[in-house]
Amino acid sequence: xxxxxxxxxxxxxxxxxxxxxxxxxxxxxxxxxxxxxRGEVLFWEGDPATFLPVxxxxxxxxxxxxxxxxxxxxxxxxxxxxxxxxxxxGPGIFPATAQALEPGTVARVASGELVALLRRRPEVxxxxxxxxxxWMRRLVDLIDGLALRSVEERVxxxxxxxxxxxxxxxxxGATLRxxxxxxxxxxxxGTAPEVLSRTFRRLERSxxxxxxxxQVVLLDPxxxxxxxxx
Length: 230
Known about the structure:
It contains 9 helices and 11 strands. It has helices spanning 3-11, 21-29, 85-89, 111-120, 122-148, 151-166, 182-188, 193-205, 221-228; strands at residues 31-36, 41-43, 51-57, 59-65, 71-78, 81-82, 97-100, 104-110, 175-177, 209-212, 215-218. The strands form 3 sheets. It has a 4-stranded antiparallel sheet with strand order 1-8-3-6.
C-alpha cells in the first residue's frame, strides 16, 4: 500500500479522522501494513504491545482463553477501527489475543515512536483520549449486558445491531447472514452455543425472527427492537 492509499485508509478510522494532515503524515511514517489470512493471529495475550493495531479491512476478534482452551470473545473489530490503545499507552502488554475472522489488512503503528509523537503533537494525545473513552463505554456496556440482561435480551441486541450494521432495512421480512460463526456469536452474547441455539428457537416460537442456518429473517421488528432495548 503506497503512502497516499495508507493516508486515506487511516483517515477513515475514528482515531485519526480529525487529525491535521501534518500529524497524520507523521503517523503514516511510523506505520507498516500487513495482510492477515483467516484464522491468523495478530498478537497473543501477554505479548509486548510494540505497535498500535488498526484494522483497515476485514474483521478481527479479541478474546481471552483459559487453560482448557475455552474462549470469551470480548469484541469483534470491524474495519475501519483502531484498538488496544490502553495496552500501548498503559502496561505495554496485550491483555487479549487478536485473531482474523476473515482475510483482511491491518496497519501497525510503532508504539515507541507514537508515544514520542504525543509529546510533540498534543492533538494526537486528545484523539487517543477520545478513543479511550469509547472503549470505556464499550466495556461498561459489556458488563451491563452480562450482569443485568437476560440471554434472550443479549441475543436480541446482537441481532438488532447486526441488522443495523448491515445497512439492510429493519422492516418485516428483512434477511441477513450472520456476520460471525455461531460459537463466536454465543461468546459475544455471554453464553454457550447450545444455549444460543435454544434462544434462537424461543425467538422463533415468539414470532420475532426465523433462523435458517446462518440466515436470519426478521419477522417482528418492533418486538426485536424492544427486546434489544433499541
